[in-house]
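Q: Protein A?
A:
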Amino acid sequence: MKNYYIIDFDSTFTQVEALDELARISLENHPDREKIYQQIEDYTNLAMEGKISFRESLAGRVQLLNANKEHLNKLVTHLKKKVSRSFDRNKEFFKKNTDTAWIVSGGFKEFITPVVTPYYIKKENIYANTFKFDSNGNIIGYDENNPLSDEGGKVKLLQELQIDGRIFGIGDGYSDFQLKESGLIEKFFAFTENIARKSVTDKADHITPSFDEFLYVNDLPRAISYPKNRILCLLVGDVPAIAVHILKRDGFSVRVKETFEEKYTKDVGLLLLGNGVSVDDEQLARADKLKTIGYLGDIKGKISKRICSEKGIVVFDDKKNKNRNAEFIPRRMADFINNGDTAMSRNFPNLTLPKLTQAHRLLHIHQNVPGIMAQINQVYAENDINIISQFLMTKGDIGYAVTDIHTAYDKNMLKQLKQIDKTIKFRILYK
């Protein structure tokens, strides 16, 4: 059976609620705009939480808009810049699933279609409401015969379509959960990259903080090898808010703590420490998932660089206490996770890599001993791998080999690379 992917638009495919944004455009010069904005937002939230009917919410919002076709054109331009980050980086998924990735929304085709069609979503696979206009192009209502304008509209639509296949629903609102409740879909994934509604997440089969997470758990083609929302980023001590913002915006699962609590030791992937914070050697040695440490100050005497190097942990610090260290250090950490860059590292060879395009990047951290590159390349040769580019740098006892290869290969090759003697850490990046 084919898999079909039923995807919501507002606060799912895009970061925002489109009608709320349209109101901000159409009512920009209205004297009571703030009051009306709030009324429209309230209608949205009450419906998304299942507290009022969708039709009541839709009628209330459209009546308050005072919008026309010119406003819609401005809205489309705005929405194209507000596509959710994890959807935007996974265009390739939509290209490969153009027949079965559908948009089903209580929003309106007039603004949905121009936003989603650049992502290879076919117009005939976009199901949404349509506006009614007067002769001057003003919005005066909507097609009330469209099932999506009514309460339980998504359920009614799927009942009419009678799709022959396994259906997965992705959305943030109550109307998306109703599909699961109806028994029409296989699983419902509550999408929380932009907003998390407890009334929805409590009932979901799976909470997906990003589209990467959805693709990962269903073993579908995706842009990145491991969802960043699954990577624990621990911030300890006096860490400015800008650093928290940078790492959260990049999609990591961020925890802010006063101390490096023992319960996080085995799971932490990134560790950003405020100036003066120390980590004892024993705890550091047990942090097996830790990939990078950022230190907002001079790391000397606070953390063992020797243990970090032995475990393949890339360290970034700021011993000169520059004014922008709170932005610079977390960005270096993110660049290492996202692209493999080690530029400005304290303990690793410094390497700035080209951006990945249509390739997989294999990062092999190893002890700098004779013959190890020969072993690595022997594995590639035995597996008939077409190498696009390869980079090698060493620093003291550490070797850092980065190889970009085409995406078609036997996954058993990855095990072979990990098993090479003197390997410290191995990681793969998709792009």
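Q: Protein B?
A:
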Amino acid sequence: MRIALVDSGIGMLSTAAALFAARPDAELYLSMDPDHMPWGPRTPAEVVERALAGAEAAVRAAGGDVDAVVVPCNTASVHGLAELRTRFEPEVPVVGTVPAIKPASAAGTPIAVWSTEATTRSEYQRRLVETFAQDVDVTPVACVGLAEAVESADPGRIAAAVAYAAERTPGRVRGIVLGCTHYDLVGEAITGALRERSGAVGGVELFTAADAVAAQALRRIGGAAAAGGGGRVRVLASGRPARLPSSALSYPAGRALAAGERSPAR
């Protein structure tokens, strides 16, 4: 089983780790784009171009044959999913990422959606809220600088960015939707910051998309799981053979993937 994952940076780690845990026999091709990151401030056309380039680089690295293309990035899913599906389907399923607003709103209690500034302002997020949380108290929270802080793995920057978002999250909130896959990597810091705030929520629940995206990808691929491991992880940096960035190893998901990493292909 060969799976390509496409994102600008290490936001893909939580989804990739979920896939590797479920299918330790799989070959994962992690196509990152450090030369052009972050994608959030780019135009939709630029995001489409970068997502297509990343997917095609991963397919080439896999010898021209992958079982699925996974897009563990909200920005790339919003702007590039249709074009990716036109390029690869029906031969290769393409699986995107949608913020977990629907499961978070199921209880009917107040929620907040933490996302990038661009996503917070987007028609895409507004439509998701209207569709799945029409009768729920929803607070959008623009997490200024948080994705970039996670990418840097700088504890001080992460703490400051998380604190900024936590201060803008009402105390009545019972669920936090992580609307950027980078945020999955600092879930403990997020819940910790909310607990420490004066009047913060008790027992706030985080809702992420990583496990659901991984499960959907495996459903689309089909086939029984192979016994044992033997899988491998390959990394591409803007199309070039590479290793996992050092920042990835700061997070459990990155360390789990590093265990299956192979030397850069030539």
